[in-house]
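haha ok so turns out i had the wrong file open the whole time. this is the CORRECT one, sorry everyone. sequence first:
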Amino acid sequence: MLAFSRAYFCCILALGLLLPAAVVAQESPPAPAAPQTSLLTLSDGAEPGLLSAVVNRLSAENRSKFGQMLAADWKDRPEWGDMLIALLQGEKIRPPLGWYQPSELKFGYDWLSAKFDANADGVINKSELPQDTRDLDRMFSRLDRDADGKLQRLDFDYAGGRPATAPQTASQVLFSRLDVDSNGRVTAEELSDFFSHADREKTGFLTAEDLFLEFTEELAARNSFGNDMPSPVEMLAMFFRGELGMWAPGPKLGDDAPDFTLPTHDGGRTVTLSQCRGKPVILIFGSFT
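then structure:
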């Protein structure tokens, strides 16, 4: 539910940003009485029709001012309110604007440190972890992102805490090119497909020039990201049509995930999330834009 002050609506009327009532009265017959509804008291998931009508009558300048006013005074706004404010102000949508906020972790460094940092020195050594842990060496090396033999907070905030190095960038580009289905794993079949695609002249081998062409295409695709993004005006219209996400709030950290059933990649069976309770589950979401 959106708690929204009637004062905003009155201000907009006073500024003449909506069609003057006199003009409406002259050009249209009296409309039938509408059900009594308080301003923008809408159910979660419903399209805010009145808000959309108000915003659509504002100039670009006044939309920005309206967004500033909402940001200053709408303290208890829901998550989608942040998205609306960013769009009203013509922001290029990117983290951490709107509902593109940083992820929250239930089992991050703080949890690990509280549980295993026996001497509370801010560093977790392998000897402090349960030695009967299955695949302890492999698990530790995966968590030890900088390979310095110890786990620290920076290992769990690696992407945001350190600039990308040349090897890191190169490995990301290579992995993106190989991981065709974006499932976070490269299979022998994907390697074979890459070889076939890169061997454009079907010589049976790859040269440095072949790899250069492949990686140039991948870098070009990365660098062009966002150039074809809709304009702020178009995105605002998409927002009101419900095409930029859900109006209803999502689950909070620690809440049960919404249940769903999806087919497997081969279509041979379906998987229901609730039936996996007690087992490790990894959900990978792709872009919907």
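The radius of gyration is 26 Å.
again sry for the mixup
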